[in-house]
Amino acid sequence: MAALALGEGSAAWLLVVAVLFASCLVVTGLRPSWRLRPALATGAILLLIQGFVFEVLASDAFLVPAAHFLVLFQLVLLTQERTSRNYGLVCVMALIHMMLAGVLSVDMAFGVCLVVFVPAGVAALALLNLRRELERSGSATDLAWHEGLPRGRMLATLGLVSLGELALMVVVFLHFPRFGLQLFQLRPVQRGPALTGFSDRVRLGDLGRILDNAQAVMAARVSRDGAPVEPDTLPILWRGIAHDTYEDGEWSTRHYIRDSASQPLSPERPFVPPGAYLLRGDKVIQEITLEPVTSRVLFYLPHLAALGTATPNLDSLCWHAETRTASSARGSSVSLRYTVTSVVPSRSLERLRRRRKPNAHTLAHLKPCLQLPASIGPGVGALAQRVVGSIPDDAWYDRAKAIEAYLKGHYEYTLAPRRAPAGVDPVEHFLLAEPRGHCEHFASAMAVMLRSVGIPSRVVTGFRAGDWNEYGRFYLVRQRHAHAWVEAYMPSVHDWEPFDPTPPTAAAPPPPEGFLARLDRRLAYLRLAWNSYVVNYSAQEQRELAGLFQRLLAGLPNALPSWGRDLLALDAGSASAAGLVVLTVVGVLLAAAAGLVAVGWLRRRRRGWAPGWAGRARGFYGRLEAALRRRGFRRLASQTPLEFAAAVVAAGGEGYAPARVVAEAFCRARYGGKRLSAPEWRRVRQALAAIERKRR
User: Fold this and answer.
1) Closest by Cα among 302, 209, 203 to 243
2) Over the range 677-688, which residues count as b (16 or more CB within 10 Å of their CB) and which as e?
3) Among 622, 655, 660, 667, which residue's Cα sits nearest to residue 644?
4) Number of other CB atoms surrounding residue 285 within 10 Å
5) Following DSSP, what letter does each residue of 214-238 receive, concatenated?
6) DSSP 271
7) CB crowding 2-19: b at 16 or more within 10 Å, else e
8) Share of the chain above pLDDT 70, in %
9) Which of 385, 390, 392, 403 minimizes the C-alpha distance to 355?
10) Residue 465's CB: how many other CB atoms inside 10 A?
11) Residues 69, 48 contacting (CB under 8 angstroms)
12) 456, 471, 485, 492: which sits with the fewest CB atoms below 10 Å from its CB?
């Protein structure tokens, strides 16, 4: 029930479930004989069915109403008579709960619930089977230690149940990505956090709304030449979306990115953008796990060379060639895993500073990135001209660096800038009146100033670096790491070059230290492992695991002595199949040996565990009272057991005479402390069986 409530993501529903469950435990604990009358229970179930139908029709959903119905139905079951049949039904309902919870949520909280549920479920089924065995043997409350442990059917059932649960877990784990992720697309299942500032149209200030939000967006492992890229060894800017059109405080893209042609994506066939073969430089590999955010944009380091999926729910992407933006073709309610290869260009400063102007064809293609709205007054252009000063018109890189340095040195970073007055463009207000703003203001101001001096430019939104996790050696990128910078076209390299005019003081603060901070980073690493190897464990990784297992088995002959290899006649070709058989047999033998050791240990300890005869007497006398109660005889508080037995025989006839045998044995064992002999114990069991078989 906790897994279902957490899967729905409702704190109120989790509180309701906890209160109802605790109330049920308290009531049945204080009054074990209390139970909801069958008529009332039936009426409650009918009301639950009607409520389920109504909720389905009202919400146009199925999974969440089903979770509500199952939880409340389980609570009704817990108020019924404590019989083996009802216990079995509760166990079956619990398994259904966990299966539905696995569809409702893929969060790590479900994994914790599953880890707790599996051993608890096996223990519950073991106790249920033990209860049934004792009922069949005629002692529902005592284990009959002097006759030995129940074996045979009970041990076989427990073994089959354990193997069945293990097989179910393996099957679900291996096939989870292929059939589960499609179910997660149902609504409402799991909604990701809102991520503003990453759409086709972004108003100035949208990005600032998430700069104080610590919610995780993605986790990324970065490596170069096989070694992890640690902080301060490579500029880390996670590129998201580029905007080339500015109008009235809003950046947009000429063509909607979601209207771009969809490209198929698979682990065997990654997407390679046109012209990627021209990129020269060091290759940087990124393994990214993107949380289920509201945006479909995929983030990666600039200069994309290849992008491949590592999860079944990312089977296609949209590539916007003009802005070099990649996005998922459809939304997802679970995390996305993909691998990116980017190139760090080997561009020398001398080459970047080379003075060259683009030809007419290139300028025509870049014309949208030179557009200036009418809302920008002449004061902005005059300021830009004053900043570039005497730098030659065709020295585009030097001019861009001058504007970048000017903004870094003369303007202040803040997350709470003042709004521009009505009728005044926000960029012009920032440059000429209010020199305080966040990264969007700095990037927009530089782009507008570059355009004022004839340099094509655009604003890029993404993320900067992230919190370094020393345990998993990856970057945890949060919403507060959102950033905006500028890309300016450099004709000397025939490509776009990034510039960041935001002052260094705007960098995200270092991650906190201390026990709780280290614990948080360990949990972040655990969550990344959960998403990577459980939620998004792809078919490709399954094949890699199978290949590793096959290679290990192929090396089995080398691990055996020479006489073993000769005896089994194993070679590398046949070791895989034969090794699988050997490992299976060894596993079964080890499990059987462990079971025999456990049974032997229990037998050796049974005398120390065996309850005294006073406790056993309460057990079999309780059975007698329960059997007589079902036949209309109830013992008064003033009656002794012998008086009650005599009254039953007087009222019911000599057919109830076995009640005297049980009552006398109870008094000798309970009050006299006498140990019943084997014949006496046999007579007690026969008397109990005679009473329980007797009809009214």
Assistant:
1) 203
2) eeebbebbbebb
3) 660
4) 17
5) --EEEEEEEEETTEE--TTSS--EE
6) B
7) bbbbbbbbeeebbeebee
8) 76
9) 392
10) 19
11) yes
12) 471
Cα 636 to Cα 643: distance, rounded to the nearest angstrom:
10
What type of residue is 245? T
At CA 560, angle to CA 557 and CA 565, rounded to 5? 60
**Helix, strand, coil percentages, rounded to 5, for the chain:** 55, 15, 30
Distances in Å between the Cα of 439 and the Cα atoms of 221, 374, 473, 509, 594 are 25, 23, 28, 15, 63
How far is Cα 302 from Cα 228, in angstroms, rounded to an integer? Answer: 18
Instruction: Please state, in angstroms and rounded to a whole number, the distance separating the CA atoms of residues 318 and 328.
Output: 6
Residue 576 has what pLDDT? 47
The dihedrals phi and psi of 477, each to the nearest 5 degrees, come to -95, 125
Asked if pLDDT for residue 387 goes beyond 70, the answer is yes
Q: Phi, psi at residue 676, to the nearest 5°? A: -75, 135
What region, left, alpha or beta, does residue 319 occupy, with left being phi > 0 and alpha being psi -120 to 50 degrees?
A: beta
Which residue from 636, 641, 645 is spatially nearest to 672, judged by alpha carbons?
Answer: 641
Dihedral sign, CA of 627, 631, 637, 638?
A: negative
Residue 633 — φ and ψ, nearest 5°? -105, 125
Which residue in 201, 320, 310 sits closest to 261, CA to CA?
Answer: 320
Model confidence at 147, pLDDT cuts 50, 70, 90, reads very low
Model confidence pLDDT, tens digit, residues 296-325 = 899 999 999 999 988 777 888 888 888 889
Q: Which two tokens stand for residue 163?
A: 């193997």
Phi then psi for residue 27, to 5 deg, are: -65, -50
SS3 457: strand
